[in-house]
């Protein structure tokens, strides 16, 4: 498989949760469609778009980042530290506080409106 001719993506530019350097073969989530794949010869292998937005002959078209070269310029220990730090940051976030609204007043029943006329 040949590369797609675009400039290589550096692994340091990819968020740590979209990269996996823990195994013998690095894995990466495709930045375009989010599909996980092992890097083959330093490239994202050819794959179909996960969303399948465009169809060619009844099949989903290839993802535009198929054959994209990836440069692994991050050591696995640095990647693991960045992943742990990102997990801690996410754990410290708080959800938005829900403020209860007052109960709206009850409407006058229809039979009382008719009796008042």
Q: Tell me the helix content.
A: 10-25%
**Terminal Cα span:** 84 Å
Round the Cα radius of gyration to an integer and report it: 26 Å
Structural class: alpha+beta
Low-confidence stretches: none
**Number of helices in the DSSP assignment:** 2
Largest pleated sheet: 3 strands, antiparallel
- Could you spell the SSE succession in H and E letters? EEEEEEEHH
Shape: elongated
Number of strands: 7
Q: How many domain modules?
A: 1
Overall residue-averaged pLDDT value:
84
Hey, roughly how much beta strand do the residues contain? 5-15%
The strand order across the widest sheet is 2-3-4
Structure description:
With 117 residues, the chain is of the alpha+beta class. It has one domain. The protein is 21% helix and 14% strand. It is built from two helices and seven strands. The strands form three sheets. The protein has a three-stranded antiparallel β-sheet, with no helix packed on it. It has a two-stranded parallel ribbon with strand order 1-7. It has a two-stranded antiparallel ribbon with strand order 5-6. A hairpin with a 6-residue loop joins strand 2 and strand 3. It starts with 8 loop residues before the first strand and ends with a helix.
